[in-house]
Amino acid sequence: MNIRKMSRRRVLRGVLNGGVVAVALPVLDCFLNENGNAYASGAPLPVRFGTWFWGLGGNNNILIPSKTGPGYEIPEQLAPVARVRQHINLISNLTAFRDGEPNLCHYSGWIIGRSGKAPKSSADRPTETLDITIANQIGRATRFRTLTASATGDFRNTVSYENENSPNPPEISPVEFYARLYGPDFQDPNSPDFTPNPRTMARRSVLSAVMGEIKTLEKAVGAADRQRLEQYFTGLRHLERQFDQQLTKPEPIAACHAPSAVTSDPQMGVDVEMVQTRHRLLTDLMVMAVACDQTRVFNMAYSNAQANTVREGYEKPHHTTTHEEPIDAKLGYQPNHAYFASRAIEEWAYFVEAFSKIREGSGTLLDNMLIYANTDHGDARIHSLDQLIAFTAGRAGGRVKTGLHVDAGGGGVTRVGYTALRVMGLDLPAWGVKSNMTSNHLSEIIA
Amino acid sequence: MRLLTQQQYMNMLAYVFGPDVQPMTRFAALPRVAGLLASGASRAGLTDAQLEVYQKTASKVAEQVISEDSRKYLVPCVPAEPAAADAECARTFISRVGPLLYRRALPPEYVDVLVEEANKAANSLKDFYQGLGVVIEGMLLSPSVLLVTETMEPDPDHPGAQRLDAWSLATRLSLFLWNAPPDADLLEAAGNGELHTRRGLAKQVDRMLASPRLEGGVRALFDDMFEFENFATLSKDGQVYPNFTGETAVDAREQTLRTIVDHLVVRHEDYRDLFTTRQTFMSPSLAPIYKVAVRSPGWSPYEFPPDSPYAGLLTQVSFQALHSHPGRSSATLRGKALREIMLCQVVPRPPPDVDFSAVENPDGTLKTARERVGFHLQNPSCAGCHLITDPTGLAMESFDGAGQFRREEGGVDIDTSGNLDGVEFDDVVGLGEALRDNPQVPRCLVRRAFAYATGTSSDSNNRDLLEFLAQEFASSGYVLPDLLREIALSSAFRTVYELEVRPTAPLPDQQSAQEPASAAELTASVAP
Questions:
Q1: pTM
Q2: 8 Å CB contact of B50 and A144
C-alpha cells in the first residue's frame, strides 16, 4: 500500500464510519506532515526517554577512542557499537564527585549519575531519579508512566526511585512483562474493533469508594504515613486513568505490532548467556511498548552495579574478577573483566539497534528518543569515580546530534543527566547538589 | 503503618477464601532495615506499578471466588435472580468477608456503600456474581486492607497515655505470631473488649501459641531474620557444582526452616542449641550435597552421626551456599553473615581504593582461601574488617560454594581453626559451639523478634526493655514460644511507635514539573 496516496480525509471518514478502521494500519504516517516528523496538526511526535544500566564499566584502554568528535576510531571493546555509532554518543572522562561523602563502592557512582547527589551511606536512597523527574513531565498521558526492567533476574535491585522508600521494582520475567504489556488489558491501537468492557466501568466506580477511605485513614496517622497514603492515592488515580484509557478508543499507531506471546521464561541465573537471553527478550518487549505508546519513559538494566554476572566454568563472578584478576602485562588490562565488560557493550548495541529497527514517520523510533546509559565505576578494579563513561542514543526528535565521542575533560557525570533533562523539556536552571550541581549541558551533542 | 507482605496477603486469602485461592503474583520487594524486611514494611512506599500488581492480583482472586465451582462454598447465599442485583445476598457476603479483610468491624454505612457498588455492578453487568466480583476486587485494593494502620486511643488504665486500639492490637498479635491477619475469634475478642483485659489478652496469646498456625509465624520470623529471600535469586555454576540444582536451593531453605520449627516449636528446645544440633530433615535433592543416602521420597527426619562435620545451622547448605559466590566459597561473605545475622553486628563496607589483585594467585603458590585472604590482614585498611569476618569465615572453608564438605582445596589440607570473640576452635563444629555459647546470640534474637513484632527498627528500641526480655528469655531456658509470649504480653508491645518523618520531596533543583510543558517550551528549553 502506498501510504502517501491515502489522504487524511479518507482515513478519517473510515474511522467515523466505524468497521473499516482495519485499513488504517499505517495511519500514523497519514496523520503526519509532509516531512514525517510531526503530526499534521503541527504537534510534534512524542519524544521518549529511556535509560540503560550496566555495572563495572569497561576497560578504558581498549574502550575509549583517542579521537573525539565524529569519525572516531573504534577500539577493541567498543567494536559492537560500530554498527550503531551513527545513533549514539560516547561521553568519556566523566567524574562523580563525592563531596566529602564516602566512596560507597558500586553505589555512589551510578547514584550520582542518576540523582545528582552523592549519597551519605548505602541506606541513603535517591529522593528521585532522573527518569522519574522526566516521567512526571512527559509520562502521564500513557498507560504506564514508566516501565523498568532488569536482565539480572533480581527483582529487588532497581535503578529507578520515586523517592527514597519507593524503588520502582523491575520486571525480570519476560513472561510476566509480556502479560503486563500485552495481556487482556492491552488495547491494540490498530484493532478494527473497539468495545468498552462494562466490567471496567464497574471497576472504575468501585475505585472511587476505595479512594474515599484514604481521607478517613489520613486522620488516623502521623505525617510520615500521610505521605504514604498520598502515594497510595496517586497509585489509585493511576489505576483510574488506566481504566479510563481502556474505555477510550486508542488512536492507530503504524509502528505498533503486539509481539507474539512469550510463554516460557529463560533459565534463572546470572550466567552471561542467560542474562543475554533475558536482556534481549525484555528489550524486544520494551521496544514495542514504546512503539505502541504504552509508555514514554523506561529503564533497562543489563547487570546490577557490582555485577554478579558469571561465565560457566570460571569461578569468579564479574565483580570478583575486577578485584582479583591481575592486569595482563602484555595486554595491559584484565582479560576476564574485559570479557564480561565486552558482553555488556554488546548488549548495549543490541538495545540501541532494537529501537532503530522500528520505523516511525520518516525515520525510526530511536530518532524520537533519548536513551541515557551509565555505569557505577570508571576503573572497577579500584572503585574509581573518575574516568567514567556514559552513552546517549537517539536524536530526541532532532534535538540531539549523534555519532560523536565527547571527552568531558573530567567534568561532572551530572552534565549528561542535566543534558538529558533539558532535552526532555525540563526547564531546570541547574541539576545536582554541591560539586555535582551543573548548569552546563553538553553543548557538543545539542543540535 | 506497615505494608501487608505478600505472604501475609496470601495467608489472609487462604483463611478467608480457602487454601486454593493463591494467585500467582509478585509484590514489590521490601527494603531490609536493620536486619529485617518486617521493619522495612513500615517504611516502604507505594508506586503506581505496585498498585497495578495489587489490582491484577485482586482481579484474579475475585474471578476465582465467584467462579461457578467456588461460589457455592464461598458465597453463603444464593441470589434470588442470578442475572440481577440481590442486595440481601451481597450484604450477607460483605458482612462475613469484610471484617476478615479489613481486620476490624466495618461501619454499617461503609457496608452500605459496598452493597450499593455490588448492586450497581450487578445490574450493569447483568450478573449478581460479577457484581460481587467487582466489590471483592475493590475491597482487596483498599488501603485499609493492604496497609496495616495502627490506631491509638487513650489508655483508661494510664490516664494521659495512649495505647493501640483493640483492632490494631489484634492485627499486631496475629501478624507477629501467625504472619497472618486476625482470625474470627481474635476479632471477636477485639470487638468485645476482651483483648484489653490482662486475662483476655493472655487467653488469646496462649491460644495462638498453641495453634498449628504458629509454625507459619515462626517460619516467617526466621525466613526474614536469616535473609532467606535471597534464595529467590540464588544460582550456582552448573559446571562447578553439578549437584546443586534449583530444587537444591528450594530444599536448602526448607531444611533449615523445618529444623527450626521442629527444634523450637515442636520440641521447645533451647534456641542456642540450633547451632550445634545434629538433628535435621533430609530430602532426595539435598542428599547428594550432604553425601548421605535417602531411601524415601519427600522429607524425612535425619540425624548426623556424632563424628560428622555437620552440626547446627551453620553447617547447613542454606547458610553455606547462600553466603558464597556462584562458583566458589567466600570466607568473607560467610564471616560477615555470621556477624550480621546471628549476632546483630554491623560489618563495615570495604574501603574504596583497595587494589585486590594481590589476592589473586597467578603463580599457583597460594592454594587455599586462607592463604589468599591473608593479604587482607597485611593491609591495615582491610584488616580492620577482615579480622571481624575472616577468623570465623575461614573455619567454614570446609564447605565449598554449594555447601559440600571438603577437607582440602587445591590439594592442600584446609586449616579450619579460628576464634570467635576470643574463643578458639579447630573446625566449624567448634565454631558452632562457640556461637552457641556466645551471649550475643540470644540477645540478637530478642532484638530482632521485638522489632519484627512491632514493625520497628531493631536498632531503635529501648535497650533496657531488650535487656529485660533477654533475661526473661534466659530464665525460660531460651525457649522461643516463651519469648514470643513475653513480648506479646508486654506493655511495650501495645505501644504505637511513630516513624520519624523523612524528607521525601524532590530536591529543589530537580523538582518534578507538575504540568507538562508546551511544545514551544520544549523547544525553547533545549536551545543552548
A1: 0.87
A2: no
